[in-house]
Design brief:
With 272 residues, the protein is α/β, with parallel strands linked by helices. It is 43% helix and 15% strand. The protein contains nine helices and seven strands; from the N terminus they run βαβαβαβαβααβαααβ. The protein has a seven-stranded parallel sheet with strand order 3-2-1-4-5-6-7, sandwiched between helices. One of its GO terms (biological process) is monocarboxylic acid metabolic process. Belongs to the short-chain dehydrogenases/reductases (SDR) family. Pfam families: adh_short (PF00106).
């Protein structure tokens, strides 16, 4: 399906690896010019170079989305250098999960988590998303339309033990997105959310979510698949391309009458 994204400018936060990288590549393949945001310079440049080698157009945007003024300055500078008028598509993908304990690999319970760790999670997931929306909405309104897609976790809809602050932060993204969708429908700005479960990608170095893990060589993965109905048949977890296909559709005019919605790309983990 031709999603007619040629000539569109897309900003993808956290685009340097994993799901973000997959989204950047897919949008570029559909014809969009992609601004690859990442906090780490090497990642942003690597994905931008990869897109160019595949015949697409991309520019690295190295900035911390928590720092609103700095982020806006870097994006505006990049737009000016490329001769671009503004952003048509925003994908809020950047996020952070709680640090896991050294023994057992399980994040701490809420009462055992230091308040400074709460702040890291809320700042990046919530304020980072709000900062980027605040940055692009005026331009989208002036241009007469735009697309905003935010990535959340099913933990934000179900709640998950050991992920209390993370679950709350992701739930905040959901409520915020619905409100923005109501406020800016009159401006032809579609705002939607994609909810994920476990995703296997190249940024994970070992364990059940490593891309080379299979139910045959990883006992934990075999157990995890039981929680994802479609994964039982596919014998795998979600991959970045599964997410990217959905994001690309929501970023196109093929989804013109979809807004304020949450679409699960979690293999049936949360059938809400």
């Amino acid at each position: 399906m031709d999603l007619r994204l040629k000539g569109k400018v897309a900003l993808v936060t956290g685009g340097g690896q994993g799901v973000g990288r997959g989204i950047c590549r897919m949008l570029a393949q559909e014809g969009a010019l992609v601004l690859v945001n990442d906090l780490f310079e090497q990642r942003a440049h690597s994905v931008s170079d990869e897109i160019r080698s595949e015949g697409g157009t991309a520019f690295p945007v190295v900035a911390n989305i928590i720092e609103q003024v700095a982020m806006e300055s870097v994006v505006n500078k990049c737009l000016a250098q490329a001769g671009l008028g503004g952003i048509d598509i925003l994908v809020n993908n950047a996020g952070i999960v709680p640090e896991r304990r050294e023994k057992g690999g399980i994040p701490p319970n809420f009462l055992d988590m230091p308040p400074e760790d709460w702040k890291k999670i809320v700042d990046l997931n919530v304020y980072g998303t709000m900062n980027c929306c605040r940055m692009v909405l005026p331009g989208m309104r002036e241009k007469g339309g735009g697309k905003i897609v935010s990535i959340m976790s099913e933990a934000g809809r179900l709640g998950e033990a050991h992920l209390a602050v993370y679950s709350g932060a992701k739930a905040a993204i959901l409520g915020f997105s619905k409100a923005i969708a109501r406020e800016h429908g009159r401006d032809r700005i579609n705002v939607n959310v994609v909810a994920l479960g476990a995703v296997s990608h190249e940024g994970i170095k070992n364990g059940a979510l490593h891309p080379d893990s299979t139910p045959e060589n990883n006992e934990r993965l075999a157990k995890m698949l039981k929680a994802y109905p479609i994964a039982r048949g596919l014998k795998r977890l979600c991959r970045p391309e599964d997410v990217a296909n959905t994001v690309a559709f929501l970023s196109s005019d093929r989804s013109a009458f979809i807004t304020g919605e949450t679409i699960s790309v979690s293999g049936g983990f949360a059938m809400i």
